[in-house]
Amino acid sequence: SDEKLDLNDSKWEDIHVITGALKMFFRELPEPLFTYNHFNDFVNAIKQEPRQRVHAVKDLIKQLPKPNQDTMQILFRHLKRVVENGEKNRMTYQSVAIVFGPTLLKPEKETGNIAVHTVYQNQIVELILLELNSIFGR
């Protein structure tokens, strides 16, 4: 909405509120940040040999609409900073991937493979965080 928010207000002190709002924003998009039509491509990319995964994921990101790429780059740079402060917030690459994977990347229609999809969703997000500079440059 057009409401102006004062992030210094005490109601925003709980980081879970802000994180929840961020996740809700991405969850309520008409289409995930990693678009539906690329879901299986990203899953196939993460199944490749480790040396080929980064290149495959980078190529797929370049196929996404430009606003998705730009948003993804900003979001992942922020999430990387969250992980870099892991001593304070106890967030690791894996925990960030678990929190954001299913929100950013999902199939258009859920099948019986929800548990398998979750593993791949998390692995894709974790790979992007680990290889941020290789994928998006410095």
UniProtKB/TrEMBL annotation:
**Alphabetical list of Pfam families matching this protein:** RhoGAP (PF00620)
Residues forming the Rho-GAP domain are: 1-136
Q: Does the keyword Transport apply?
A: no
- Transmembrane annotation, as ranges: none
* Recorded superkingdom: Eukaryota
Provide this UniProt record's keywords sorted from A to Z.
Answer: GTPase activation
GO MF terms, alphabetically ordered:
GTPase activator activity
Oxidoreductase in keyword set: no
Q: Which GO terms describe its biological process?
A: signal transduction
Q: Per the record, GO CC terms?
A: cytoplasm
**Entry protein name:** RHG12 protein
Q: Which organism is it from?
A: Indicator maculatus
Upper lineage? Eukaryota, Metazoa, Chordata, Craniata, Vertebrata
